[in-house]
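FORM 12-B: Structure-to-Sequence Request
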């Protein structure tokens, strides 16, 4: 397992400069469990080789035609692998850049060669990556490439966008209040009007 190339998908969504036709910033990996319940340790990324050839691909295709940009910078920032992408100027690269800028594409996926691999259930119970279920944690991962993809596995692999500030704890509390007030999780809940955002609906209710 440790010799196989692994791929882990992430999304786009934090308050930094929004994507443009020239560049975009992505959260490429975090320590959050992905949809396979696997975790990539963010403190042991091996990035030196990638920095010598910082390619941005599409759908993990390793053909030259699938290269749509380069990573101007890559590193672990605030516990997350962050990549600043400079898009190519050819038509295919600009098409991908436009889709990211418009928001129709928001996800990236990292291709990496794992070093040490440990079952999460075998970790000490006070380890943040511990679980009594399935899944692995990967350490000393060598980053091979970053790809723009359509479907993410990790909901925190996000392209960075300027967004209004949302208090997620407050929204969650209000949601729970409405669920408990309904008396049953199976009871249908009121839906926000189509002309209101989720945040506006919560504030008004």
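FORM 12-B RESPONSE
SEQUENCE OUT:
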């Amino acid at each position: 397992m440790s010799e196989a190339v692994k791929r882990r998908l992430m999304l786009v969504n934090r308050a930094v400069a929004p994507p443009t036709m020239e560049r975009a910033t992505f959260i490429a990996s975090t320590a959050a469990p992905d949809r396979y319940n696997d975790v990539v340790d963010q403190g042991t990324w091996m990035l030196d080789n990638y920095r010598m050839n910082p390619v941005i691909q599409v759908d993990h295709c390793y053909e030259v035609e699938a290269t749509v940009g380069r990573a101007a910078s890559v590193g672990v920032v605030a516990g997350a692998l962050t990549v600043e992408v400079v898009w190519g100027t050819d038509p295919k690269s600009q098409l991908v850049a436009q889709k990211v800028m418009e928001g129709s594409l928001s996800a990236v996926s990292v291709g990496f060669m794992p070093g040490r691999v440990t079952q999460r259930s075998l970790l000490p119970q006070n380890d943040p990556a511990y679980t009594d279920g399935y899944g692995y944690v990967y350490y000393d991962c060598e980053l091979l490439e970053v790809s723009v993809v359509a479907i993410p596995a990790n909901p925190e692999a996000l392209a960075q966008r300027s967004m209004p500030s949302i208090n997620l704890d407050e929204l969650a509390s209000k949601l729970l209040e409405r669920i408990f007030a309904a008396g049953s999780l199976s009871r249908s809940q009121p839906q926000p009007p189509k002309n209101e955002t989720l945040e506006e609906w919560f504030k008004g209710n």
